[in-house]
Amino acid sequence: MLNGTASLILSGAPYNFKASMVGVSYVSPLIGVFLGAAYTGKFGDWFVVKLARRRNGIMESEYRLWLFCASLVLIPFGLILWGVGAAHHIHWFGLVSLPNLETFPVIYWKKCTNSSHRFSPCASSRSPTPLVSNSVSPTALTATETWLVRP
After folding, report:
1. For residues 102 and 24, what is the distance between their CA atoms, to the nearest angstrom?
2. Alpha helix locations (H) across the chain?
3. Cα–Cα distance, 10 to 87 (Å, whole number)
4. Tens of pLDDT along 25-67?
5. What is the pTM of this model?
6. What's the alpha-carbon Rg for the chain, to the nearest Å?
């Protein structure tokens, strides 16, 4: 969502960002990716081991799905803040920082699709996931751009 609308929203009134500053606003998703890597990496591994110990040492790949509970709250909150916040002209920091929490689930998806171990818990989802994602993403961006009201 940010990719298709950031330039239009941040370069217009009341923010009036220059093109270079709109580009700098993409540092925020980068920070979100690092936070998501820590969340799904170190914390995720600790969480899965804790669940496995609780269940007599049996590790199921579905244990990692519990990590997406945070995304169930953060992604809709970030998207609503981006749209409603821009419509109500909130401070630019609110637009640039919090809506980019939607980068959290991207880390786990990349962890699954880039796993080199054939017995990875995500091994069965490797091949169709990038195909579907790369097919749907441009379509979604094109569709959202037609909904925007341009001045």
Report:
1. 18
2. 2-11, 19-24, 27-38, 44-54, 69-87, 92-96, 104-113, 128-147
3. 12
4. 888 888 887 887 788 788 888 998 999 999 988 888 788 888 8
5. 0.67
6. 18
**Mean pLDDT, the chain, whole residue set:** 76
Contact 36, 47 (CB under 8 A): no
Helix (H), strand (E) at residue 149: none
Q: Residue 64: CB partners within 8 Å, gap ≥ 6? A: 40, 44, 48, 108, 121
DSSP 12: S
**What's the CA angle centered on 99, arms 74 and 87, to 5 degrees?**
120
Q: What is the pLDDT of residues 90-143, one digit of tens each?
A: 999 888 887 666 665 555 554 554 444 444 555 444 556 666 666 776 677 677
Q: Rounded to an integer, what distance in angstroms lies between the CA atom of residue 19 and that of residue 146?
A: 22
Q: Determine the Cα–Cα distance for residues 24 and 99; give it in Å rounded to an integer.
A: 15
Say if residues 109 and 129 touch (Cβ distance below 8 Å): yes
Residue 17 DSSP symbol: -
How does DSSP classify residue 97? Answer: S
